[in-house]
Design goal:
The chain has about 290 residues and is an alpha/beta fold. The protein has a single domain, classed as Rossmann fold. It contains nine helices and ten strands. The strands form two sheets. It has an eight-stranded mixed β-sheet with strand order 1-2-4-3-5-6-9-10, with helices on both faces. The radius of gyration is 18 Å and the shape is globular. About 40% of the residues are buried.
């Protein structure tokens, strides 16, 4: 049985957007701290199901589908598929839920959004957990992502969907079991008339065009420096091709209190349900 409520709301430009609201109604803790979970470029709220199961008895966990992903409405203007618009959607969601302060968990693109949110409304952000992303994106990893986003062949059944997910992502998750690959595919695809269909608008690939820079501002270091006063945990896949060790070192130089956890046998990006991830997350969130 799902342990979350469906949350529907509208963006400032009228799109119907969706989030999962994991909230344990405990009389001893009627108003727990809120965590906002934001996924990567092609993903959705399902990415955080395991982590939310781990946290929701202590925290209210909001896991979002950005516009054009999951159950959220697709945008007819592909130019709106950029972090600045997504960030505004997140503030709209927090206003809708009447959440005054929040801890952010952001994977990849969601981490970039976390930096922007903390810089724009610092009083609203308590702390941040950043999953496998920094102010610089390694060109090799970006090229890999450009190679498949919006370009994957259509599949006709769930076995093909699982095989496709595995072919694209096996280097990042070399120890996944068959069951984990099936769960991964169920998060990446939805079912239409019995056929698995990728749960994102192919038009999001336009944000990766070489001539466009709106997938991320060209220099995020000034934005990151404005976040340096916030408690922050950085999680990195030991084999990541997106977050380079040199970038982590510079982040440490900018943020004296930055906590870093490196997750073995993971590329981009850790699931956040690995034991090493959960230990680091629990320690970081203790008392928040």
């Amino acid at each position: 049985m799902d342990n979350y409520n469906d949350c529907w709301y509208h963006s400032n430009d009228g799109l119907r957007l969706y989030a999962r609201d994991y909230h344990c109604h405990d009389s001893d803790n009627p108003d727990p701290p809120t965590i906002l979970c934001m996924h990567g470029l092609t993903r959705n709220s399902a990415d955080f199901a395991g982590l939310a199961d781990h946290l929701y008895e202590r925290f209210r966990v909001i896991a979002v589908d950005q516009r054009g992903r999951g159950r959220s409405e697709y945008d007819g203007d592909a130019g709106n598929y950029n972090p600045q618009v997504y960030v505004q959607d997140m503030f709209t969601l927090l206003d809708h839920l009447k959440v005054a302060r929040v801890t952010l968990i952001g994977t990849s693109m969601g981490g970039l959004m976390s930096f922007l949110m903390a810089a724009m409304q610092p009083e609203r952000i308590k702390a941040m957990i950043i999953n496998d992303i920094g102010p610089e994106v390694d060109p090799g990893g970006l090229a890999r992502i450009k190679g498949y986003v919006g370009k994957s062949a259509q599949v006709t059944n769930w076995d093909e969907a699982v095989a496709q997910c595995r072919a694209i992502n096996e280097s990042a998750f070399p120890d996944f079991s068959d069951e984990q690959w099936r769960d991964f595919a169920r998060g990446m695809f939805c079912e239409e008339d019995g056929i698995p269909v990728l749960a994102y608008d192919p038009a999001i690939a336009q944000s990766l065009d070489e001539e466009r820079v709106d997938v991320a501002p060209p220099d995020l270091w000034p934005v990151f420096e404005r976040c340096a006063s916030k408690p922050m945990l950085l999680i990195r896949g030991a084999d990541s091709d997106i977050l380079a060790p040199a970038c982590v070192a510079r982040m440490r130089d900018c943020h004296d209190a930055l906590q870093v956890a490196e997750i073995p046998r993971r590329g981009h990006a850790p699931t956040l349900t690995e034991r090493t991830s959960l230990v680091a997350i629990d320690a970081f969130l203790s008392g928040r």
